[in-house]
């Protein structure tokens, strides 16, 4: 059987059925104090990581074959990773990119030189990987999760493609994350904006969240402190980091931005990086990437040392080019009527707040028909309250995904159906996402307002599929 983008996910999920437990394992909340009081609370996670490394050894220990830029944080991880990969690609450095989740195509997760691999290469590498994995699993009683398998395949691919540097986004947290298996001292760690998310697993205090995020830092690593971190968060990270101060680099001390509007959009009148300055025209929807660009530049610089790159030689239109489900603008046509829809995977309070601020910066008076769904019941009300000032109406829906237990999503649906969530001028709940999209398109045609689809990368992916028909 030929493996392609359409069936690779099913092939990986088939592997998760081998030696699978009878019920979905519950994840425990692990706080810093809880761990210090009783390290046994994380024993199962540590044991699972050791098993995972044993599996990687069976694959030839691909995770040790390349230098790594390892990115943790709450918001901005995916975009920072993507920009970093694009910078490396423009400097002629063979690199791999691992980002999750995918929005439209599973090949988004594992890229070579900032591009999805071909269907032919996916078939070639995935066929070998699945055969190796199935043989190993069937010779043991060990169960591997989807996240472990997709990450292991990415490392295997990067090894086969002989990448020099891999840019790796953490799934969640950092300290006990599946990606936290790199032990080379030349790793560059990047921590982006930190906020509350996955509190049921990471804890709900800044101290606990920072403890998890900074857990990727190992002795002799280089650390990049992202642009959006608070002074308190930076102080806490430095306390957790077991590296000398000379290995810690602060993005804010390395760049400066001034902008002024012109007739066509926004002109960068001074973007200073290590005393290098440049000037170029930006599209309005690229402004929000500038802080992440600074973080990506510093991360790439530290990883490629002693090689240097000239800021003025980079093609910023390509580096700041479109990102899937990050302020992604599409134009759709129904019954000869043109409608604009913005797709954005913002899925927690912090990211929704960033999204709202970006849209207000682009056009302070614009209202949107918000098409929304989320699997995070504990944040839904707060996310919708953030969106209310820019919403003309809210159309809420639901979705199902193959990758995880859908119980949390079902709980969220119950909340979305409740009367207390009537926060906008107009609120509609429609279970079927395709019907919800049709309602949004109909209202957009009547009001000439754009649609904003957000709340979950998975939901955006579902809506995008509906747009294709």
Please explain how this structure is put together.
With about 475 residues, the protein is of the alpha/beta class. It contains 16 helices and 17 strands. Strands 4-3-2-5-1-6-7-8 form an eight-stranded mixed beta sheet, sandwiched between helices. Strand 9 and strand 10 (about 265-275) form a beta hairpin. Helix 1 runs parallel beside helix 5, helix 4 packs across helix 10 and helix 12 runs parallel beside helix 13 (about 380-385).
List the helices and strands and how they pair.
Blueprint: H1 8-16, H2 32-37, H3 43-58, E1 67-72, H4 77-90, E2 95-98, E3 110-112, E4 115-116, H5 119-138, H6 146-160, E5 165-169, E6 188-191, H7 199-202, H8 206-213, E7 222-225, H9 231-240, E8 248-250, E9 255-262, E10 265-273, E11 276-282, H10 290-304, H11 316-319, E12 328-334, E13 337-343, H12 349-362, E14 368-372, H13 380-387, E15 391-396, H14 407-416, E16 427-429, H15 433-447, E17 451-454, H16 457-467
Radius of gyration: 22 Å
Query: How can the largest sheet be summarized?
Result: 8 strands, mixed
- β-strand percent reads 15-25%
pLDDT under 50 segments (min length 5)? none
Adjacency order of strands in the biggest sheet? 4-3-2-5-1-6-7-8
- Ends distance: 27 Å
Helix and strand content put the structural class at alpha/beta
Strand tally is 17
Shape: globular
Q: Quick check: average pLDDT?
A: 86
- The percent of residues in helical segments reads 25-40%
Counting DSSP H or I runs of 4 or more residues, the number of helices is: 16
């Amino acid at each position: 059987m030929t493996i392609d983008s359409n069936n690779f996910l099913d092939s990986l999920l088939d592997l998760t059925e081998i030696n699978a437990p009878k019920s979905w394992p519950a994840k425990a909340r692990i706080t810093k104090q809880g761990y210090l009081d009783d390290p046994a609370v994380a024993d199962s996670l540590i044991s699972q990581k050791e098993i995972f490394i044993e599996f990687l050894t069976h694959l030839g220990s691909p995770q040790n074959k390349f230098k790594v830029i390892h990115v943790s944080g709450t918001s901005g991880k995916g975009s920072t990773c993507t920009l970093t990969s694009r910078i490396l690609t423009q400097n002629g450095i063979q690199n791999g990119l691992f980002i999750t989740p995918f929005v439209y195509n599973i090949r988004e997760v594992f890229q070579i030189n900032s591009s999805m691999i071909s269907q032919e290469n996916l078939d070639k590498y995935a066929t070998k990987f699945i055969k190796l994995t199935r043989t190993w699993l069937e010779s043991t009683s060990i169960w591997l999760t989807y996240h472990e398998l997709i990450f292991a395949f990415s490392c295997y691919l990067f090894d086969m493609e002989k990448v020099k540097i891999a840019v790796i986004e953490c799934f969640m947290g950092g300290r006990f994350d599946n990606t936290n298996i790199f032990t080379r001292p030349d790793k560059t760690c990047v921590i982006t904006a930190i906020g509350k998310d996955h509190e049921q697993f990471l804890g709900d205090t800044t101290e606990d969240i920072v403890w998890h995020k900074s857990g990727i830092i190992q002795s002799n690593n280089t650390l990049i402190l992202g642009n959006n971190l608070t002074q308190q968060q930076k102080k806490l990270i430095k306390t957790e980091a077991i590296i000398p101060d000379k290995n810690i680099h602060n993005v804010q001390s390395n760049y400066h931005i001034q902008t002024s509007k012109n007739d066509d959009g926004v002109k960068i009148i001074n973007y200073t990086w290590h005393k290098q300055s440049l000037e170029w025209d930006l599209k309005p929807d690229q402004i929000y990437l500038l802080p992440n660009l600074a973080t990506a530049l510093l991360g790439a610089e530290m990883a490629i040392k002693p090689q240097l790159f000239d800021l003025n030689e980079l093609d910023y239109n390509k580096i700041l080019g479109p990102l899937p489900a990050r302020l992604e603008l599409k134009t759709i046509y129904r019954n000869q009527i043109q409608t604009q829809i913005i797709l954005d995977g913002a899925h927690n309070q912090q990211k929704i707040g960033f999204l709202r601020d970006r849209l207000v910066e682009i056009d302070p008076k614009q209202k949107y028909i918000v098409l929304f769904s989320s699997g995070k019941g504990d944040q839904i009300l707060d996310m919708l309250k953030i969106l209310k000032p820019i919403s003309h109406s809210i159309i809420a829906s639901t979705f199902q995904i193959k990758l995880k237990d859908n119980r949390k999503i079902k709980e969220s649906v119950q909340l979305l159906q409740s009367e207390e969530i009537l926060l906008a001028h107009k609120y509609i709940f429609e279970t079927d996402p395709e019907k919800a999209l049709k309602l949004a398109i109909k209202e957009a045609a009547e009001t000439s307002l754009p649609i904003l689809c957000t709340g979950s990368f998975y939901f955006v992916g579902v809506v995008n599929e509906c747009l294709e028909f």
